[in-house]
Design the sequence.
């Protein structure tokens, strides 16, 4: 991008609206502020950790049309930091101001069945799946897909929530009871060797920059550890996974940071999830890459050229700090090589992401 093209981007001092008030919004706001932008957080929770570091805050429900319209009029561009922003809410603000990425990415990511169909239409491979709406349909799907399998609520699942593993047909009744009759997908169990993510940033002009893929280890369905570079098993599947992620971004006419989570399958990468946002498995990029995922998302949505995704060292490791582990903050700080990030959340509840720590080897 030439300097004159950069000059047509949103200038520093502009207001970036962020729908969602969690730690991802917080880290986006810090990056935006560093580049001279102001952020306006829109979130229903009063004690938003993103609002704590932003210049403006609207505390209102996602279905409060008047509040959304006033918010949109106060912003120069709007983005979102989580995929469960109601699509209607996104459409309301998009009538007044550019919404980047657009609401199509939300529609795809909010619905596991649609997500898998979209991934397949983009050339990706997913687990076998079937939509189920009753215990009888679950029984039929289990017979068709085979067990073991995982029952996931079709909407509003994250960090392993809304998921039940079925080992045998004896588990069917209890599994259906556990999801309380919500519409679900039954997903075939993928016998994977490792998990990894492809995180890319797409600029307004369609340019794509991709981060080195982190190898991810989950514990109890929650990300525990991300390491870059990944193991050889992952590295072999990265080119194919990148092609799929880029195709998904292009088909969505995506702007900003997009994450695709993959399993290392026996025949190639198997796409698990599309997250239309910055992602926990990319937090290492804050110190481990020249421009972090947060900076590149802000650059993308403001129409700026992307920063380099190159590694700053030879290896980066990110560990999540979950629940009570946040009480060990002094131990992290006693390590002079540790970059500690705490999200400013009050109560260290079980399973709650409180912060993360990163180490980068030169
Ligand atoms: P999700 O919320 O769909 O990202 O799932 C959380 C974690 O559960 C994944 O990161 C995997 O470790 C595991 N998991 C989810 N779906 C499957 C599957 N179809 N086969 C095997 N493991 C899975």
Sequence:
């Amino acid at each position: 991008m030439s300097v004159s093209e950069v000059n047509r981007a949103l200038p520093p001092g502009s207001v970036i609206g962020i729908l969602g008030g969690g730690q991802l919004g917080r880290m986006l706001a810090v990056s935006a502020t560093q580049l001279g932008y102001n952020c306006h957080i829109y979130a229903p929770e009063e004690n938003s950790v993103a609002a704590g570091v932003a210049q403006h805050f609207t505390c209102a429900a996602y279905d409060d049309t008047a509040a959304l319209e006033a918010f949109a009029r106060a912003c120069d561009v709007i983005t979102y930091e989580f995929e469960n922003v109601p699509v209607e809410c996104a459409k309301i603000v998009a009538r007044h101001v550019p919404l980047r990425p657009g609401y199509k990415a939300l529609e795809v990511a909010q619905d596991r069945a649609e997500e898998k169909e979209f991934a397949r239409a983009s050339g990706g491979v997913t687990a076998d799946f079937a939509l189920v709406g009753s215990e009888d349909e679950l029984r039929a799907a289990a017979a068709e897909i085979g067990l073991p399998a995982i029952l996931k609520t079709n909407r509003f699942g994250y960090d392993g929530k809304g998921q039940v593993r079925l080992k045998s047909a004896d588990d069917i009744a209890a599994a259906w009871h556990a999801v309380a009759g919500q519409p679900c997908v039954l997903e075939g169990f993928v016998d994977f060797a490792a998990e990894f993510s492809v995180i890319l940033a797409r600029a307004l002009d369609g340019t794509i920059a991709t981060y080195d893929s982190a190898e991810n280890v989950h514990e109890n369905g929650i990300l525990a550890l991300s390491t870059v570079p990944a193991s050889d098993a992952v590295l072999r599947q990265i080119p194919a996974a990148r092609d799929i992620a880029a195709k998904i971004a292009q088909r969505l006419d995506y702007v900003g940071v997009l994450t695709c989570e993959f399993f290392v399958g026996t025949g190639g990468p198997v796409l698990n999830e599309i997250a239309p946002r910055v992602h926990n498995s990319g937090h290492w990029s804050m110190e481990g890459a020249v421009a972090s995922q947060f900076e590149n998302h802000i650059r993308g949505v403001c129409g700026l050229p992307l920063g380099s995704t190159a590694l700053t060292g030879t290896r980066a490791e990110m560990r999540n700090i979950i629940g009570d582990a946040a009480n060990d903050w002094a131990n992290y700080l006693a390590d002079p090589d540790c970059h500690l990030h705490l999200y400013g959340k009050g109560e260290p509840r079980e399973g709650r992401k409180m912060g993360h720590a990163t180490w980068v080897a030169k």
Q: What stands out?
A: The CA atoms of residues 234 and 272 lie 15 Å apart. The pocket of adenosine monophosphate is lined by residues 127, 150, 157, 160, 187, 189-190, 195, 218, 221, 261, 272-273 (CB under 6 Å). Residues 232-251 form the longest helix (20 residues). The chain has a mean pLDDT of 96.
